[in-house]
Amino acid sequence: MTQPFEGKVALVTGAAAGIGEATARAFADAGASVMLSDINQEAGEQVAAAINEAGGKAAFIRCDVIKAGDVKHLVDQTVEQFGRLDFAFNNAGVELERNKLADGNEDVFDAIMDVNVKGVWQCMRHEIPVMVDAGSGVIVNTASVAGLGAAPAMSIYSASKHAVVGLTKSAAVEYGRRGVRVNAVCPAIIDTDMLRRAIEEDPRKEEVHKNMHPIGRIGQPQEVAAAVLYLCSEGAGFTTGVALPLDGGYTAI
Ligand code: NAD
């Protein structure tokens, strides 16, 4: 049976773990060739190898999304190795922050903005021309529910994810007529290393996180992956400029 993304090519940043890893695996399961990238080379190569061993098509390139040269190399190599670029999941992101706003420091501000905002901008800047030339393409950026509202003790992170939503909506409007759709996913709390790091620092967060979602549990990375694949599918052909909450009802309250 033909798979839905047979013959398509997907690029994923932050693909060595968590949401990026789950989405890279889901793209491969749906028949796409997947270019994984991350700063964690060892883990990223392991995920790509596991996809290939399971019968999928994957490769890994180390890419720090802060660096323009790395991102250009990633996009160029994706097209070189797989022949095209249909889907880009710009997902690499960092949290890093544990303070209220007035206790924050400039280094942390710059580090978060560099990866979360400049990284997504940098990726789109190199992906969009390839998609415009082809006359089609879909980009999904990872924002957060912190990009739709407040995130106490994570104000810089929240600002960075609001910026991702702004970049997403602007690019969607600018390139809609050129065949490129651009959307964002806005997860609430998802079961990844990012969450585990937060709970290690403050174990009370486990219960708080579970209870903040009306659905009564945290989310799974595969549930974000499923939404990313939907946004890339033809079924979402009329959907662009959307910041889609994946939040167990959190933003409905
Ligand atoms: P994670 O820490 O498990 O994975 C993030 C991956 O990004 C890691 O493999 C890391 O090495 C990579 N990365 C970090 N900096 C990078 C850089 N400069 N260049 C390339 N790769 C880099 O985290 P996750 O939970 O899977 O997070 C993925 C995305 O989802 C992030 O953008 C995060 O902000 C967002 N998000 C996560 C949650 C959550 O609860 N886990 C909720 C909302 C949004």
UniProtKB/TrEMBL annotation:
The keyword rRNA processing does not apply. Coiled coil: none annotated. It comes from the Bacteria. PROSITE patterns: ADH_SHORT (PS00061). The keyword Ubl conjugation does not apply. Pfam families: adh_short_C2. Keywords: Oxidoreductase. Belongs to the short-chain dehydrogenases/reductases (SDR) family. This is Short chain dehydrogenase.
